[in-house]
Specification:
Blueprint: E1 4-5, E2 12-17, H1 31-50, E3 53-59, E4 73-83, E5 87-97, E6 104-117, E7 128-129, H2 134-162
Parallel strand pairs: 1-7
Antiparallel strand pairs: 2-4, 3-6, 4-5, 5-6
The chain binds coenzyme A.
C-alpha cells in the first residue's frame, strides 16, 4: 500500500445529546456510554482512512475530567495522528456543552489504536499519513514513541506473567 493521506481527510466530528437513559441516578453521563461514542467516532475515522473494516486494538487511558449531565450536548472529535503498517493511532477528544450558557468544556481525551482487516479478517496494510500543521507533525513524532512504549509494556507484562 503506497497511498499517502492527510489526517484532515479522515477527521471525524460527531455530536450526541445526553438522554436520561445514558446517565446514572444522579443524571451524570455514564463513563461506558462516553467511551462507546468515542469508540464509534474513532472507528469512523480509522475506516475512512484505511478504506477497510477496522477493529479497536487498545485505548491508552480513560480519565473522566469533569462530569457531563443530562441535556448536555457532547461533541467528539477523532483525528488520526499516525498510521504504521496495519495499525493506526487516533486522538479523540470529547467536550460537553450546556444548552443555556452555551459553554463547552473538555470532558475526556484518549488515544485509540485501530487495526485494519482484509476480507479474510487478517491484518492488512493501510495508507501512510502526511502531517501538515505543526500540531500534526508533533503528534506524528510522538505517536511512534507511544507505540514503542506500548510494545515495551506488553513485553514486560508478558514476562512478569510467565515468571
Ligand atoms: C487487534 C488484532 C487484530 C491484532 O491482531 P494480531 O494477530 O495480534 O496482529 P499482530 O500482532 O500481527 O499486530 C498487527 C498490528 O496490530 C498492532 N497491535 C496488536 N495488538 C495491539 C494492541 N493491544 N494495542 C495496539 N496495537 C496493537 C501491532 O503493533 C501491529 O501494528 P502494525 O501492523 O502497524 O505494525 C487482534 O488482536 C484482534 O482481533 N483483537 C480483537 C479486536 C476486537 O475485538 N476489538 C473490539 C471490537 S471492534
Amino acid at each position: 500500500m503506497n497511498k499517502i493521506k492527510s489526517p484532515k481527510k479522515s477527521e471525524t466530528i460527531m455530536s450526541e445529546i445526553v438522554c436520561p437513559n445514558d446517565t446514572n441516578p444522579m443524571g451524570i453521563l455514564q463513563g461506558g456510554k462516553l467511551v462507546q461514542w468515542m469508540d464509534i467516532a474513532s472507528a469512523i475515522c480509522a475506516q475512512t482512512h484505511a478504506e477497510r473494516i477496522c477493529v479497536t486494538a487498545s485505548i491508552d487511558r480513560v480519565t473522566f475530567k469533569t462530569p457531563a449531565k443530562v441535556g448536555d450536548i457532547i461533541t467528539i472529535k477523532a483525528k488520526m495522528t499516525r498510521s504504521f503498517n496495519s495499525s493506526m493511532e487516533i486522538f479523540v477528544q470529547a467536550w460537553a456543552k450546556k444548552i443555556l450558557s452555551q459553554k463547552a468544556y473538555l470532558i475526556n481525551e484518549a488515544y485509540f489504536t485501530f487495526v485494519a482487516l482484509d476480507d479474510n479478517a487478517n491484518t492488512t496494510s493501510v495508507p501512510a499519513i502526511k502531517p501538515g500543521t505543526d500540531t500534526e507533525k508533533k503528534e506524528y513524532i510522538n505517536a511512534l514513541k507511544r507505540k514503542t512504549n506500548l510494545i515495551k509494556t506488553n513485553i514486560d507484562e508478558s514476562n512478569t506473567r510467565s515468571n
